[in-house]
Specification:
Strand content: 25-35%
Strand order of the largest sheet: 1-13-12-14-15-24-23-22-18-19
Mean pLDDT: 80
Largest sheet: 10 strands, mixed
Helix content: 10-25%
Number of strands: 24
Low-confidence stretches: 1-29, 32-107
Radius of gyration: 25 Å
Shape: globular
Length: about 425
């Protein structure tokens, strides 16, 4: 895959969405009245040290030295080793030192480094901020003794250094999404994975509650992420789900779109308690704009919204505007290649937060104009908390108002849950 230049507001090919979505799967839709859609080197280790081989330390190579090698074995990543003293591929680079006092050979543990790249579920874009690690069990008792770890950069690259020779499982995690793969290191040097490793959602269960003014499911479709749809605009499907902790526990992530019918508020205390339990047990939720009250009712001290927090809807005061937000989150900065983002609020009455508690992660801030009164300066336009799982709230969402920046931000939020 090659990165392409972003032109005229289009999303780059190295971005997050493919043009062809054929073959993807959407799960059963609940309470919508609609029919569901469906889809159809091992490399040997040199056991003896090489006399008079050069003693060296493994160095991390810059990303632009990465070389892509054609995949030779189905289902495995092909790789090569480079002798850092000669530059020759395939040379043995184990080392050996001499104890000058006792004239006894001392064999030091051989290590290597691993370089690779992490792609999203579509295989068309790269993932920033993914956690990559190897677990070491040095004494063979089945218990983790140490961990070698790294984080992917804005282009999805990572480097693991000081990895002992042998076969290892590499774990990659980003929010609820993950993948694993094995590598075999047979000699010192730098192992460059010839193929990207993409995140998977095979074990991730997602529920989406529909809303009148939002459609986060459209972005999930573009990212080829499966989900179950619950009608939140009419009927009781969404309320029934939220009143059943066991049903909620079947999911890893629940999305609350803007514009969910207010019939849930009859059971507000019960549903807020269920949401709290769901997230404390490791589940994650996303709420947008008018769905703020699910967030507010569950964590009343996390964010202060405009007006009376005890009255649902009192924060619907935002004026229609396009504003330049300050991007606080480092992963979002990396993906945008900017510390600012363009947010478009094309309708009046969007929810305005005024401040966030010190234990809340503020992702973006901006000056929010209100329909009456003084604008709110440095309003927390997107926030995240981690009381077990992750709960994220944004004042913006996916609808006709969306900008390229907003699409990138929402995709990052999805992968962070």
């Amino acid at each position: 895959m090659e990165n392409e230049t972003l032109i005229q507001g289009d999303i780059p090919a190295g971005g997050l969405w493919p043009g062809d979505l054929s073959g993807k799967t959407r799960k059963v839709e609940v309470g919508t009245g609609q029919a569901p859609r469906s889809e159809s080197l091992s490399i040997s280790r040199q056991s003896d040290p090489v006399p008079e081989a050069p003693l060296f330390l493994s160095r991390r190579l810059p990303v632009f030295f990465m070389a892509v090698v054609p995949l030779m074995l189905v289902g495995c990543s092909e790789y090569s080793f480079k002798d850092q003293s000669t530059g020759e591929l395939g040379a043995d680079t184990g080392f050996h030192t001499q104890d000058t006092d006792t004239d006894t050979d001392i064999v030091e543990e051989d290590t290597a480094s691993v370089q690779g790249r992490v792609c999203d579920l579509t295989g068309e874009g790269y993932v920033a901020g993914a956690y990559v690690y190897i677990i070491l069990d040095t004494n063979g008792d089945g218990v983790e003794d140490d961990r070698i770890e790294a984080t992917t950069d804005s282009d999805g690259y990572f480097t693991l250094t000081g990895v002992p020779l042998g076969t290892h499982t590499i774990y990659v995690e980003k929010g609820s999404f993950s993948t694993t793969f094995e590598v075999t290191l047979s000699e010192e040097g730098n192992l460059e994975l010839a193929e990207e490793e993409c995140l998977q959602d095979e074990d991730v269960e997602i529920a989406v509650i529909t809303g009148a003014y939002d459609s986060i499911e459209d972005i999930l479709d573009l990212m080829e992420i499966e989900y179950t749809l619950y009608n939140g605009v009419a009927g009781q499907a969404a309320v029934t789900l939220l009143r059943d902790p066991d049903a909620m526990a079947e999911y890893d992530i629940i999305f609350f779109n803007c514009g969910i019918a207010s019939n849930w508020s009859t059971h507000k205390t019960e549903i807020a308690a269920n949401i709290l339990e769901f997230v404390q047990n490791g589940g994650s939720i996303y709420t947008s704009d008018w769905a703020y009250y699910f967030f507010e009712a569950t964590w009343p001290n996390a964010v202060d919204f405009y007006g009376d927090d005890a009255t649902e809807g009192s924060a619907y005061v935002g004026e229609s505007t396009t504003l330049t937000a300050q991007v606080v989150d480092e992963n979002m900065q990396a993906l945008l290649a900017s510390e600012t983002a363009q947010l478009n609020y094309d309708l009046w009455s969007w929810v305005v937060p005024t401040s966030a508690n010190s234990n809340v992660d503020v992702l973006l801030t901006g000056d929010a104009p209100v329909g009456f009164g003084t604008p709110v300066t440095d309003a927390p336009l997107a926030v995240s908390i981690q009381p077990g799982g992750t709960a994220i709230y944004t004042t913006f969402h996916n609808e006709s108002q969306i900008t390229v920046d907003m699409t990138i931000l929402l995709a990052e939020i999805i992968l962070s849950l």
